[in-house]
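Appendix B.2, paired examples.
Example (i):
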Amino acid sequence: MHLSDDAPPLLEGAGPLSPETAERLTCDARRLTIKPSGRDLVHSRVGRCASYAQQRALHKRSSHCQYPGCTAARELEAHHLVPVERGGKTELDNLILLCPRHHKLLHDHHIHTSGNAEQPTFTDQAGRAITANQPHAPPGRPSAWRHRVSSAAR
């Protein structure tokens, strides 16, 4: 994947991606940065994905997806509470486990995470808390849209 400040995200061999898809795909990925430096290029490797030891510690701390109401325990993925782009570190205190379904939901629907890694808080775009009683509510759906849908169903 190619990320640049002056061009949209690009997946080699596939084409441009939405910012949400690029964010999800790079959420727990290793990054190689290549920057011009005079007449040369400078390479730097930035590790932003959880190490094997961190993954084991995460699974020991929480044996299932930490999204409210989810009990999935397989194929869990590490997610940064504070994204790397905003200064978040790849440390246990900043990492939670999510199943692939909720990891995608989180990125695609701009669901925000906060709190601490042992008891994270999830909020939708409008700032409403997502709880186990209403874990899959579509985030940010305007009331006018709901009215149009209910009127159309009549």
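Example (ii):
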Amino acid sequence: MPGKRAIADANRPGVWRDGVLLALTFAAGCVDALSYLGLSHVFTANMTGNAVLLGLAIGQTQELQVAHSTAAIVGFVGGVVAAAKLVGPPRDRVVWSSRITFALGWLGGPRTAGHGLLVMIVLSGLAMGIQSAVARRLAVPGISTTYITGTITALVAELTSVSGAVGERRRMTAVIGALVTGAITGGLMLTHARAVAAFVPALVVAVVLVAVVGFPRIASEKAE
């Protein structure tokens, strides 16, 4: 029916946007698993956990671990600063924009195993900082692609509200599932296919980049 088709067309940009968020969340979960298990027990996406690890390392006078955790935080902050300059402030809720596509392109930058450990940690943190800034620019309520504490809080709050939006609950549940699934995938890859484990999140980001190039013209559209 024409009415239903019009509604579907109007919602399509948001559906694409949510799919990208889920893919990036999966990649972040995978990256955190790979960085924690393969990069000297640091998180390069979840800065809350990494700050705790930094505090533990300082308390136990583990100088090398302090350096690694600090490198992850520095890289993450640098990524957020760079991406924030590219995508602009999150004053208006947008579905997508060409600036966001450009910022995501930075995630596909070279991160080879030939670099030193500290450099790899910084580069991984940089990529996750860019991703976090992109997700913040989209301003989807209760959603972050690199940590789920706020998402879980928002979801539980929604569940206690009779008038909560079903679509938002589903989105938040899917984000939590995507992060956990990404972490499971990263752990399995390190166990069974360590040599190619890092290609999993890189492949996911590459697919996202290909997909967003095919987005309709929604740069100026606002999410409802």
